[in-house]
Each structure stands twice: as C-alpha cells, then as structure tokens.
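On clarity, I found the account of how folds are encoded harder to follow than it need be. For illustration, here is how one protein appears when written out as sequence plus structure tokens:

:::
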Amino acid sequence: MAYLLVIGTRKGLFRATSDDRRHWEVSGPLRLDDDGYADMMGIYAVGIDPHTRRVLAGAESPHFGPSVWRSDDLGRTWSEPEEAPIAFPDDVEESLTRAWQFAFTDEPGVVYAGAEPHSLFRSTDGGDRFELVRALWDHPHRKDWFPGAGGGAVHTVIAGRVDASGTDPRAMTVAMSTGGVYQTRDGGASWAPANAGITTTFLPEKTPEYGQCVHKVAVGPDGAFYAQNHHGVFRSADPAEGWTSIADGLPSDFGFALVAHPGRPGSALNFPVISESCHLPPEHRLRPHRTDDGGRSWHPVDAGLPGEPYYGIVLRDGAATDGAGEPGFYFGTRSGDVYVTVGDSGTWTQVAAHLPDVLCVRAAEV
C-alpha cells in the first residue's frame, strides 16, 4: 500500500508519501503555478476526495486573495480554475476570506466547503465550482454569530450524520466559531442548533441555545460525536438531544484539534492546550491524550515524541486519520513538526521537521 499526507502551512503546501508509514519522502513547498508566487500562500484547508483522489487546497494570498487549487495526480501538479471556485452571489454583500474545510459525501462529485465568514458552499463537480447553501446563510441566528480569535467560520463539516442511527445522505452537521453546532436533516433546506450541554465562558448565559465557540467536532464509527470547545470537551450520541462533558482526566479542557478513531467506537485523540490566554502545551510537553472508553478516561500517548520542553501546539485542522483498515493518525504543530502513529502502537514517528507553522493535515491510503 501507499500513503499520501498533504500538509498545509502558513507558507505553502508540502507533500509526503510512504509505503509503510514509517519512512517518508517529503517534498515542498509545492509549486502551485508556473510563476511560483503561490508557493508561499497560507494553506488553511486540504481535502482528498475518496472517490477520485483529487486533492483540493484552500489557499490564501495577501496579494491575490483566497482561492481553491486542485490536483488530479496526488499533489504532484496543481491547477486553479479561471473563475474563483468559491464566491458569494451578487446579492450578498460579503467577500470570501478563506476556505476552512472540505468535506466529501457518498455521492461522487459532491463536495462541501466550510468558509469564512460563516458560510457553507456546495459543489457537484468535484470542487470546480461551489454555490452558497442559502438556508444556512439566511438563518435568523447568523446576525449573532461573531468572529472568535481565529475568525468567524464554518470550520467543521460532517456529511451524512446527525446522530448514531446511521448514515443519511440528507443529513449534515456543521460547527462554527463563534456560533456552535448546527444540523440539517433535509439536505440543507433547514438548520437547527444542537448545542445543549456545551458551555460558554464568555457569555452571560453558560449554556445558551447557540453562540458557543466550538473549535472542532469529530464523529466515530458508531455515530457518537466528540466536540472540543473553547474550554470544554464533550460527547453526544445525538447532538440534538444534548452533550455531556468528558473533560475529566485531561490536563486541560482547552484545545483545538480532535480526531475520532475511524473504526473503533469510543476511541479518540485530543491535543490539550493550557488555556485561551496561553497557547502552549500543558507542562510544555508535546503530549496527545487518547480515550478508548468514550471519554470516561484519558491517557497520554507520547512515546517517540520529544521529551524536552516543547512549545508548539496543534491547531484545529492540524490532526487527521488516513482511515485505513489499520489507521494512521497524524498531527502537525505550529513549530513545524509532523508526526504519525499507526494502529495501537502508541509510538509516534516523525514525518517532517522545521516546516512553517502547520495549519492543516490530511492523509489517505492511495
């Protein structure tokens, strides 16, 4: 088998390939155009289409603005559509800041993009062109969604799931900062908040209907949802019915990234950060934590990681799984280091070191 890891950084896109997930060949920054101006773009979102293996990269240039680049040869070469793939309609007085997330469905060609400002876009041609999902944009709550410290965006898109009852092509869950979790069960025609039990530290009401600053949401193979909040880690079998805290046992309940095991119910990885005012790892150690019992207990998984003081944290899309039968788990830090662990080994192997700030990683068995 071969494995592809695509790494988005603040200064360009990197690509890593491996046959065994222990030894990696890293290249980059990848040239996105013949002039090379795009080499230094910030890459905030990467997606690998499970049907075609097309790779999408959400890029942002301080000179040319945001765009979506695409590769149909596993990241070796790239192209950009002549017209902006993601743009607001003429009757919307907003402009795209950046794409934050790409999510693929069971239907070939259908791709969703979560974006900033708070918005969701849909493509039916594999990501060449996207259209605004108007029902979410026109939601009456939108006037109260405001940017958090990292901007106001739909940063999590989970297609086909709203609870543990099974997949449904008309169902979808999104999470945003600052707004919370919203769900649709009718293909995006209507949306409802699903935040009961998720707390806030910055609003007068501690458990509002909406307005939470959810940092990341992941879903396990049994349909259980996990949420890393702006202080607070939560689990739910059905977000519409509420969430339960599972933060006990973690060194901090603040963080950004969260990854659910793709094949084992109850298992997830968390990457704690000291607090909202101190974005450093607890005890200055690079130490992910894992649960194997749905959040009732957590334990550090740090074999192979630096034992000396470390100061880089993992951002919300800086961690991922390749979804293989024996899954690999990956993360990259703001210090530019990228690691992988495979299956239950519990031991991390370094993929790359000293890259620019890692903003996102995505991996696939190819």
